[in-house]
Fold this protein.
Amino acid sequence: MREKDVVRCRTENGIARLELNRPDCLNAMNRQLLRQLLAALDWAAADDAAQAVLLTGNGRAFSAGADIRYLNRASAAEVRELARLAVAATEKIENLGKPVLAAINGDALGGGLEIAEACMLRLAAPHARFGHPEVKIGAVAGFGGTTRLPRLIGKGRAAELLLTGRLIDADEACRLGLINRVAAAESLLAESEALLREVMAQSPSAVRLSWEAIHRGLSLSEAESARLGADYFGLVAQTEDFRIGTKAFLEKALPRFKGR
């Protein structure tokens, strides 16, 4: 991990920690940060020592979104390039094959919220604010917010936030289902890690396929989604972990999954 990195990476006790590191500008996203985030996600995916990923921000914010100074002087083609980098990052987060949790240590706005929306799980400090203020600068939530926010909190509530640019606090975000829970600022990382370890204690194949069934099922009809779940049930039954888990249940013991 180097000081000059705008995304810091390290693996500790089975968890890859990725930290957005432009604190002087509230971790605003530019091309450099997004490219480093993509590289960091590739690194986390390839790291056999990392079973899960914890994504957070350095300083007072998770991320305030796209770098507005850059947007103001960029051409339309350059703005689209930035958005495509961000979309590539969010797609990689969703399809990493490992659990990804956003520990939202401060404001998650615009593109910063879109990064968090792509994660499997989201915990936030009480002082964090959330929102899509893009319309207030004449823009659109083009990093995936118009796609993911309605799926997380419903079309009507998402429309209100996307069309007004209104910000909400952590308690409201939790009530809406935008985040999983609120954690005290001083214990946010510890609680985030504890939740990840609950997930990591399960069979990796079962976790991965459950997430895929949730994620892919949202774009299918109810019947198609149910059939996908049945197919994945059959697929996971081929694993050694399935036999370990079912045997442990019958013996009233705790399963010790092997990840295969």
Remarks:
- The first helix runs from residue 31 to 46.
